[in-house]
């Protein structure tokens, strides 16, 4: 520390005018750090407040306020006529100790963390901006943001007690009612508002549903290939997952019954099988409902893109056919609006209503009151159904663009499966083509696809890549298909990254 006539020279001290903290608070904070770290030792004389003010380009009042603050904390003392000093009483803090070495054996982690997380939870991150062929991303470019902003601004001018207190654990009543009206009009599903529970996205719903319905060791049928998020929720609850193959009609119920006739739950994506994009046939829906009743099992129906169908009128959800009260229906606003709002919902059978109410209340569950209320207004005032109508046309156009471009550029390399629903389809590789190599070649060309093996619990006969069509405009889809075709031709036969399944088999304890 250099000394000079005006007291210690403190070269590292600087105030930032753009900083939110006021200037005297900044001065006091920096000086406190220097004193407690020992950089300014006890007994050091500080510059006079007038000198400090001049050096830092602040008013004298600001410098005096900083000194007064530190004096009141006991870090500085003023000696009449002699200036301001660091108190002799200050004991600089010892330098921060190194983090303790890990003990030989940490306390044991849960089964889930020890045995499952590494195999099943690779660190996959969602692309955050639109590009070909990212899956599950709505058309950000077509969202009516001005309308949304107007509703948001109006919300924040509302009644403070309502918008600032804890929201209902089960969901905002206006939103629960609006969801019922939407499901009746758009999905042919009749329900009561008290059967609707609002969650922070479908994923949050899966976690709560698993907690309410599954005991560790319970057998759960999972579509193979199938949805990763739901699979993880059941695994986290200790479920023994039973991979059940999927054919052109949906989950193969007969195989499921042979593999695990005592399952507690079946998870399915009937409207748009994830990831293959097929729709569960009417017969298969009834077969699954009958099997669930015979086994005494629940069904969780994930209708994540149910609003988006481009052909003739779609089949109703399983939930609409469920006379026995077995189906828990899960929907989301991540596709119909956008995923950042984190809003989804479950419609539960009457027999589960009380249990959901109790569990959610006990856990002080609840999601943003603001988002729920703005979405409820968006729905009630008719913007939601108008937006859905526009988006169906837009996604149909984008789906057509993908199919056209694929026919022209991908023939012989990838066979793109037609789909009449959802946000994505899959491109199947010709026999013998290495899936991992194809996915790596696409990734190297900046194209967002995932190999089908990422979604499997057990190897499947098909190899291929997911192809989202919702996020970008037709001309970008066209260019993306050209780039993908070039990347696949260039990467053919590299053998890079063999398409090993991420998950190697059924999980049983
Ligand atoms: C199969 C499936 N279900 C549900 C969802 C929606 O999840 P969330 O509502 O948590 O965003 C997704 C998201 O991509 C999905 O792929």
Structure, described:
This protein is of the alpha/beta class and 509 residues long. The chain folds into three domains: 3-86, Winged helix-like DNA-binding domain superfamily/Winged helix DNA-binding domain (Arc Repressor Mutant, subunit A), CATH 1.10.10.10; 142-385, Type I PLP-dependent aspartate aminotransferase-like (Major domain) (Aspartate Aminotransferase, domain 2), CATH 3.40.640; 389-491, Aspartate Aminotransferase, domain 1 (Alpha-Beta Complex), CATH 3.90.1150. 39% of the residues lie in helices and 13% in strands. The protein has helices spanning 23-37, 49-56, 60-72, 111-120, 145-156, 160-164, 173-187, 202-213, 228-236, 253-259, 282-295, 318-321, 353-362, 369-380, 383-409, 435-444, 474-491; strands at residues 3-4, 7-8, 45-46, 76-79, 83-86, 196-199, 219-224, 240-247, 250-251, 265-268, 298-302, 327-332, 344-347, 414-416, 424-429, 464-468. The strands form four sheets. An eight-stranded mixed β-sheet has the order 6-13-12-11-10-7-8-9, with helices on both faces. Strands 3-5-4 form a three-stranded antiparallel β-sheet, with helices on one face. A hairpin with a 3-residue loop joins strand 4 (76-79) and strand 5 (83-86). Helix 5 crosses helix 14 (369-380). The model is unreliable at 493-506 (pLDDT under 50). The structure holds pyridoxal-5'-phosphate.
């Amino acid at each position: 520390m250099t000394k000079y006539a005006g007291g210690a020279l403190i070269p590292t001290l600087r105030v930032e005018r753009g900083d939110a903290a006021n200037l005297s608070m900044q001065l006091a904070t920096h000086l406190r750090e220097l004193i407690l770290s020992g950089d300014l030792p006890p007994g050091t004389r500080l510059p006079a407040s007038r000198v400090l003010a001049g050096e830092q380009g602040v008013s004298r009042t600001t410098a005096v306020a900083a000194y007064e603050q530190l004096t009141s904390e006991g870090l500085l003392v003023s000696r009449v006529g002699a200036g301001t000093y660091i108190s002799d009483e200050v004991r600089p803090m010892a330098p921060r100790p190194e983090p303790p070495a890990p003990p030989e054996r940490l306390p044991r982690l849960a089964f889930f963390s020890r045995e499952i997380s590494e195999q099943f939870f690779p660190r996959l991150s969602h692309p955050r901006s639109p590009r070909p062929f990212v899956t599950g991303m709505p058309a950000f470019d077509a969202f009516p943001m001005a309308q949304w902003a107007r509703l948001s601004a109006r919300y924040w001018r509302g009644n403070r007690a309502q918008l600032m207190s804890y929201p209902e654990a089960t969901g905002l009543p206006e939103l629960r009612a609006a969801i019922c009206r939407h499901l009746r009009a758009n999905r042919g599903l009749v329900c009561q508002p008290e059967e609707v529970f609002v969650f922070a996205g479908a994923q949050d719903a899966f976690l709560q549903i698993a907690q309410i319905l599954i005991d560790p060791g319970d057998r759960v049928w999972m579509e193979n290939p199938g949805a990763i998020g739901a699979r993880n929720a059941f695994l986290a609850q200790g479920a023994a997952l039973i991979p059940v193959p999927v054919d052109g009609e949906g989950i193969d119920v007969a195989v499921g019954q042979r593999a695990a006739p005592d399952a507690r739950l079946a998870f399915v994506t009937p409207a748009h099988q994830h990831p293959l994009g097929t729709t569960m046939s009417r017969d298969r829906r009834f077969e699954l409902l009958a099997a669930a009743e015979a086994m005494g099992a629940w069904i969780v129906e994930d209708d994540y893109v149910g609003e988006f169908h481009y052909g003739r009128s779609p089949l109703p959800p399983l939930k609409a056919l469920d006379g026995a009260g077995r189906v828990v229906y899960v929907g989301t606003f991540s596709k119909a609006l956008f995923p950042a709002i984190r809003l989804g919902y479950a419609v539960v059978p009457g027999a589960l209503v009380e249990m959901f109410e109790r569990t959610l209340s006990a856990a002080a569950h609840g999601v943003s009151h603001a988002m729920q209320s703005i979405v409820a207004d968006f729905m009630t005032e008719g913007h939601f159904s108008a937006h859905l109508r526009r988006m169906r046309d837009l996604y149909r156009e984008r789906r057509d663009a993908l199919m056209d471009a694929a026919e022209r550029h991908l023939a012989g390399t990838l066979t793109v499966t037609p789909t009449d629903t959802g946000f994505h389809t899959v491109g199947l590789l010709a026999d013998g083509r290495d899936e991992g190599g194809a996915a790596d070649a696409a990734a190297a060309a900046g194209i967002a696809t995932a190999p089908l093996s990422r979604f499997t619990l057990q190897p499947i006969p098909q190899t291929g890549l997911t192809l989202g069509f919702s996020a970008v405009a037709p001309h970008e889809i066209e260019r993306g298909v050209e780039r993908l075709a070039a990347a696949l031709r260039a990467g053919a036969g590299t053998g890079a990254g063999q398409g090993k399944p991420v998950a190697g088999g059924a999980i049983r304890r």
